[in-house]
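Example for tutorial group B:
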């Protein structure tokens, strides 16, 4: 076995090992392990391609040996196991919709919306082109100012080139511990998919720590909502149908916005603006209080019976925000709200599973579309179906909220 081939085994094998058995403690090692295994955990086919290429070249030169073949086989088996685990997210997500919306939810979806739902995931695209590429049918308007905080108050608008009228709106917020991150970097498979289906999708920056704190980020999101209500029709949007979504800290922010519609305390200078939302979508979110703040900075501090419908998707191997916090928040929200709460716990998923066109995230994208179609359907209603809280969520204890993502 050559030294170069050994390097390949380490580069592919160590992230695969960390994906199969993620580090949870101490916090520093857990975060480093998360960074190392993120790519392999979502797109293991690239690791398989690199391993196969290196193995073939080393074998052709006669330098592989029995130890090399054994090591290659072990790493390949691990990568295949990771791919299988990613594929298992689809049935879990289907069951989550049945649990949160009721067994008959599909019949309540309007026929035109049901017809637009994707029947098959783009497996060829997932395998060959897992990175974000904007479809040709989608146009992007860049760097539009919605506030006076410079580049941190800029947004991008994605819409179908045909600009159909009456389009629903999705506003997406990035994560990054409220101290980093930028628009157009996270959940792009979701952004592109919805825009290609005629949605108007807004991806926005917001002010970050340490220059800003709570509730500055929330004020920014509410400014984005108000901007959409004023300008959305210019891009073909129907601002009355407006969903907010977020990744990690962006999920925390989206929940706060969804649970505080029209709250003047978070709308300085635009107190009369309508900042209500149609639904909230949370991807690998954070649910606890803001840095050094109390319960009032947490989504659990604003639970209400008339909360909008909510979809929460979290990985059960998340080492940044433990899954117990997602279970706990979902259980509390279901106790308080009369509206549907859908909770999907993805098997073997890590934090930030929404970065690639992976088997797992494309199944999540389909679930978001189905959830939104149900919410938008007149026959669906807004009440909670019988037996909304699953046994797994009910059994979850009042776990801690995890570290700020």
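The residue assignment follows.
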């Amino acid at each position: 076995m050559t030294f170069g081939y050994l390097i390949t085994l380490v580069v592919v094998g160590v992230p695969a090992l960390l994906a199969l058995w993620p580090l949870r403690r101490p916090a520093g090692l857990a975060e480093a392990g998360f960074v190392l295994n993120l790519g392999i955990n979502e797109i293991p086919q690239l690791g398989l391609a690199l391993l196969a290429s290196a193995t073939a070249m080393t074998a052709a030169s006669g330098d592989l040996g029995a130890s090399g073949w054994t090591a290659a086989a072990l790493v390949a088996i691990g990568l295949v196991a990771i791919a299988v685990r990613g594929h298992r997210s689809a049935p879990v997500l289907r069951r989550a919709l049945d649990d949160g919306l009721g067994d008959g939810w599909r019949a309540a979806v309007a026929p035109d919306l049901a017809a637009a739902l994707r029947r098959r995931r783009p497996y060829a695209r997932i395998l060959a082109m897992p990175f974000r590429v904007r479809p040709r049918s989608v146009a992007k308007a860049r760097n539009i100012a919605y506030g006076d905080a410079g580049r941190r108050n800029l947004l991008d608008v994605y819409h179908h080139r045909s600009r159909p009228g009456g389009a629903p709106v999705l506003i997406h917020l990035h994560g990054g511990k409220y101290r980093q991150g930028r628009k157009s970097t996270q959940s792009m498979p979701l952004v592109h998919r919805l825009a290609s289906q005629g949605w108007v999708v807004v991806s926005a920056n917001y002010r970050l720590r340490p220059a800003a704190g709570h509730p500055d980020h929330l004020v920014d999101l509410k400014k984005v909502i108000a901007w959409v209500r004023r300008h959305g029709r210019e891009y073909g949007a129907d601002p009355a149908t407006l969903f907010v979504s977020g990744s990690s800290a962006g999920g925390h922010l989206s929940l706060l916005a969804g649970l505080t519609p029209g709250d003047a305390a978070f709308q300085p200078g635009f107190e009369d603006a309508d900042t209500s939302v149609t639904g909230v979508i949370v991807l690998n979110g954070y649910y606890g209080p803001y840095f050094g703040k109390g319960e009032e900075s947490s989504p659990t501090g604003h639970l209400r019976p008339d909360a909008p419908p909510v979809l929460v998707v979290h990985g059960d191997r998340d080492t940044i925000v433990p899954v117990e916090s997602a279970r706990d928040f979902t259980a509390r929200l279901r106790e308080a709200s009369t509206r549907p709460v859908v909770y999907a716990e993805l098997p073997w998923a890590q934090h930030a599973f929404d970065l690639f066109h992976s088997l797992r995230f494309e199944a999540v994208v389909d679930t978001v579309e189905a959830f939104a179609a149900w919410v938008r359907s007149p026959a669906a209603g807004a009440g909670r179906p019988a037996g909304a809280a699953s046994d797994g969520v009910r059994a979850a204890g009042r776990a801690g909220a995890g570290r700020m993502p």
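The first strand starts at residue 138 and ends at 145. Compare this with the pattern of hydrophobic and polar residues in the output above.
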